[in-house]
Design a protein that fits this description.
HTH_TetR, elongated, Tetracycline Repressor, domain 2, single chain
Length: 198
């Protein structure tokens, strides 16, 4: 039952936001009493903490599944961006990430710290792959570009409250990042993906 509550809460938090959803909402959606939820979670913060851990795990499993398809480095970036777009497609104007940061800053900080090392590692592997494929220039300082892209993406998420606005700017950031690294072949591949995913 505990795992079912975490799974349902995660789904609802992502769709409607961490602040918006109450324990009553989760109980109602699951057709169980609020008392049953409190049997496993003494308060909403504990449930949010467990839910964000589940989402974190699911996101990285999905990224690994995209990487396993062995797309070229540029298409891989667009596929992963599309994955995030679908996963975090909120029906509220205020994104779940923004609500988590505003109302549960300690949980947000813990999630952020976990994401940093994993995302940096993924950015690094993508750049190495693109260089090998001849899509990115060989003279790139990989560590600098990892930092550049990390700062770009996380700055957008930190400073944008609207999910639609964040997605629009993230696409521009991906184009900017790719153009900065791309060889002439990489530019052709970028243009192809911009038409496909725009």
């Amino acid at each position: 039952m505990k795992d079912k509550i975490i799974a349902k809460a995660s789904e609802m938090f992502l769709k409607l936001g961490f602040k918006s959803i109450t324990m009553d909402d989760i109980a109602g959606e699951m057709c169980i009493s609020k008392k049953t939820i409190y049997k496993y979670f003494c308060n909403k913060e504990i449930l949010i903490q467990e839910s964000t851990q589940l989402v974190h795990k699911q996101v990285h499993e999905l990224i690994e599944s995209v990487v396993a398809k062995n797309h070229n480095a540029i298409q891989e970036n667009f596929e992963i961006r599309n994955l995030f777009k679908e996963l975090f497609n909120s029906s509220t104007d205020s994104s779940p990430v923004y609500q988590l940061k505003k109302h549960y800053p300690e949980i947000y900080q813990r999630v952020l710290e976990q994401e940093v090392s994993q995302c940096e590692n993924w950015f690094r592997e993508n750049i190495k792959k693109g260089i090998t494929e001849g899509l990115y220039r060989k003279d790139i300082d990989i560590e600098s570009y990892v930092k550049f892209y990390y700062v770009l993406i996380f700055h957008i998420n930190e400073n944008t409250s609207s999910e639609m606005e964040a997605q629009r700017i993230e696409l521009e950031a991906l184009e900017y990042h790719t153009r900065a690294m791309a060889t002439p072949s990489g530019i052709i591949e970028l243009e192809k993906n911009l038409l496909k995913y725009n």
